[in-house]
Design goal:
Shape: globular
CATH class of the largest domain: Alpha Beta
Distance between the termini: 39 Å
Largest sheet: 9 strands, mixed
Structural class: alpha/beta
Bound molecules: NADP nicotinamide-adenine-dinucleotide phosphate
Radius of gyration: 24 Å
């Protein structure tokens, strides 16, 4: 039945990945992420037959919600947000094992009740279950939840047995180095590192996983993947949306914390790391940490490695939109950046001298996330046009969203009697080759956590290494207020001060 949903090209590619009997407990179960991503992810794993036969879902939150009402909310979330229609038989099997526990996040007795609830499920079933806690609340309650998971004995449940308790922690993972270290210390006081799954949903995206396959399953790339052939790398996470109604939240965050420190750094680590000895979680994460540690400290002052800006009024999608300072909940003299661009140098044998440019912004020309690897320009002497050697640089780009795929720019002869060249794009799109109904990142990540595969999750030292790089930038920006804050028109590709980060002859891409 599940196979009727699968594109023919996918047959034979899937490995059976069996999760043990599991109860998933979602903290913050009445929230936005639960409805938009987590419940649909669980449901789609059910459609694909990837949930264990003994699978239970428990919602947890402060608001009392009867079991029936929680099941109705969950079904409504699937109808609204799932990539596939709600099928009554799949949902009824999950719904029969879905319940809700109400309680505060800082109340030990409530966690004791949760523990009793899980024990009652196990007793009725006649077997033990692994428990996967998903902390999907605002970060202000991460610590009390973790502490109470420890105090109630839930964190140590069956520790030492193959299917012990695990915890998925949502972003943001701290707001600077000190808070990330404090959060790691709280986590480690309760859980062992191998029980912890710090999520960055970018790592669950198909193209991001494909980056590892492209790099290490094709022999043509590795010989070129270094300073001898690569000119520069650009990583872009651009959004079309502004801050909308989340201005209050965004004022505390900004582009560097919200996107650069986590998503773009994960993309950088996978692009730049050395080949791991295996695809084992620790082998991959060791290599990611090594390359992050090889990044040179950033120069923060004028003429340095960082640029920031706020969007001004402009036009997006044919509509006039406000500037950041006019948005609801934004201080008129706000120093929060809606755009950040960074120039990084990786000081190792492979990358020395190759700049990595990262940028992320709201209200940009187009919603797009991509990694673009630009190779050194060919000499072009054979094809000089009127004395100009204007061959394009070969560029390999991984488009992470939307229209997942990859493309390569090649110089090609224009048909005709003269020998003239033109760059052309050779493209591969997942949707065209494999069908458009690919799993959402959260499906892959929830399944991996159930199975116990941490490869696509962030290890504690990875998070801290990234914060170590960016905390001095945040401190510098805090110390100078709005000094050096540029603006860019909403709907554009960003501010002029970001251009200054690029060497002459290089330009920000407009993907
Ligand atoms: N939404 C997204 O698309 C998205 C994407 C990536 C990451 N995240 C991260 O995922 C987590 C959850 O996001 P969300 O958008 O679902 O958050 P949310 O809707 O604001 O909150 C989730 C739930 O947490 C509880 N809660 C809210 N504010 C609280 C507070 N001040 N103190 C204690 N409990 C509170 C509420 O449940 P009760 O009142 O029932 O307790 C709420 O329904 C956050 O860490 C967020 O950064 C979200």
């Amino acid at each position: 039945m599940a196979d009727t949903h699968r594109h023919p090209f996918l047959h034979g590619l899937s490995k059976h990945r069996g999760a043990p009997p599991t109860v998933v407990v979602i903290f913050g179960a009445s929230g936005d992420l639960t409805a938009r991503k987590l419940i649909p992810a669980v449901y789609n794993l059910g459609v694909d037959g990837l949930l264990p036969a003994d699978f239970f879902l428990v919602g947890y939150g402060r608001k009392p919600i009867p079991d029936d009402e929680f099941r109705t909310l969950a079904a409504d979330a699937i109808k609204e947000f799932s990539r596939r229609e709600l099928e009554a038989d799949v949902w009824s099997r999950i719904a029969a094992h879905t319940s809700y526990v109400a309680g505060a996040y800082d109340e030990k007795e409530a966690f004791d009740r949760l523990a009793q609830h899980i024990t009652a499920i196990e007793k009725k079933l006649g077997r033990e279950l692994q428990v996967l806690f998903y902390i999907s609340t605002p970060p202000s309650v991460f610590a009390p939840i973790l502490q109470n998971l420890g105090a109630s004995g839930l964190a140590g449940k069956y520790l030492g047995q193959p299917h012990h308790a695990k915890v998925i922690i949502e972003k943001p993972f701290g707001k600077d180095l000190a808070s990330a270290q404090a959060l790691n210390a709280t986590i480690r006081s309760v859980f062992e590192e191998h029980q912890v799954y710090r999520i960055d949903h970018y790592l669950g995206k198909e193209t991001v996983q494909d980056l590892l396959v492209q790099r290490f399953a094709n022999s043509i790339f590795e010989p070129l993947w270094n300073r001898n052939f690569i000119d520069s790398v650009q990583i872009t996470v651009a959004e079309e949306v502004g801050v909308g109604s989340r201005g209050g939240y965004y004022e505390q965050s900004g582009a560097l914390r919200d996107m650069i420190q986590n998503h773009t750094m994960q993309l950088l680590a996978l692009t730049a790391m050395e080949p791991p000895v295996s695809l084992d979680a620790e082998a991959v994460r060791d290599e990611k940490v090594k390359v992050l540690k090889a990044i040179q400290p950033l120069v923060t002052g004028p003429g340095g490695d960082v640029a920031r800006a706020q969007y001004a009024a402009g036009m997006v999608g044919g509509k006039n939109v406000k500037g950041y300072l006019e948005e609801e909940g934004i201080a008129p003299n706000s120093a929060t950046e809606t755009y950040a661009a960074i120039r990084l140098s990786i000081n190792n044998w492979r990358w020395q001298g190759v700049p990595f440019y990262l940028r992320s912004g709201k209200r940009m020309a187009r919603r797009v996330s991509e990694i673009a690897i630009t190779f050194r320009r060919p000499p072009g002497t054979l094809f000089a046009d009127g004395g100009r050697f204007d061959l394009a640089a070969n560029t390999l780009s991984f488009q992470i969203q939307p229209d997942e795929g990859l493309s390569l720019i090649l110089n090609t002869k224009i048909p005709g009697l003269e020998t003239r060249t033109q760059p052309v794009k050779m493209s591969f799109r997942y949707a065209t080759t494999f069908g458009s109904n690919t799993p959402e990142a959260y499906e892959r990540l929830v399944l991996d956590a159930m199975i116990g595969d941490g490869t696509l999750f962030i290890r504690g030292d990875e998070a801290e290494t990234s914060w170590k790089l960016y905390t001095p930038v945040l401190d510098y920006w805090k110390s100078v207020g709005r000094d050096g804050m540029d603006t860019y028109a909403a709907g554009s590709w960003g501010p002029a001060n970001a251009d200054a980060l690029l060497a002459p002859g290089r330009a920000w891409r407009q993907p």
